[in-house]
Design brief:
Radius of gyration: 16 Å
Helix content: 40-55%
Number of strands: 5
Largest sheet: 5 strands, parallel
Number of domains: 1
CATH architecture: 3-Layer(aba) Sandwich
Strand order of the largest sheet: 2-3-1-4-5
CATH topology: Rossmann fold
Order of helices and strands: EHEHHEHEHHEH
Shape: globular
């Protein structure tokens, strides 16, 4: 079942906890303006459903449905989250295959030690410690088929946002009117 149009952009933004996914997604959305939907795994899984991340969990389908709905409504979409390849890979592959417009995948790769440092600055730092972060961390958990561009920890927030805006063509598109 096709989704979106030839004009809609789908951006998949993945990486380990504290790799910068949410910051990048929010900055891209702020820079673009109206017309870009942010489908955040943490929001749908932890806030809306309050479920744990496990294979076959309900949030996988909700992420898919939400992204498809927004694409069909004419929005560009960023799907962002840890989105483990073994849990979310099949859904993401179907979404990529079904999307009629350009689709871009990115994996933010940050070494574990830097993940710890970044995590310490987050509001949930007191709830999640090093053992849990170490358990969650997966080194280069890439989707099969080379469908993701790896962006390293040396890329600044501004540099990463610039890259996504240019790569995806969002830089040249007009946002929706308020």
């Amino acid at each position: 079942m096709t989704v979106g149009s030839e004009d809609t952009r789908l951006i998949l933004l993945r990486g380990n906890s504290a790799s910068g996914k949410s910051s990048v997604a929010a900055a891209v959305r702020d820079r673009f303006g109206r017309g870009l939907a942010l489908v955040a795994q943490d929001n749908l899984r932890r806030i809306v459903l309050r479920e744990r991340d496990r294979p076959g969990a309900a949030n996988i389908g909700l992420i898919d449905l939400t992204a498809r709905y927004a694409l069909d409504a004419g929005y560009h979409v960023i799907v962002e989250g840890i989105l483990y390849a073994d849990h979310y890979g099949d859904m993401l592959a179907r979404l990529r295959a079904d999307h009629r417009g350009p689709t871009h995948g990115y994996y933010l790769h940050v070494p574990f030690d830097e993940t710890l440092g970044r995590h310490a600055t987050k509001p949930i730092a007191h709830e999640v410690g090093e053992p849990q972060l170490r358990d969650w961390y997966r080194e280069l958990d890439l989707l099969p088929g080379g469908v993701e561009t790896v962006i390293g920890a040396d890329s600044t927030l501004a540099g990463t946002v610039d890259r996504l805006m240019l790569d995806t063509g969002l830089a040249g598109l007009a946002p929706l009117e308020p």
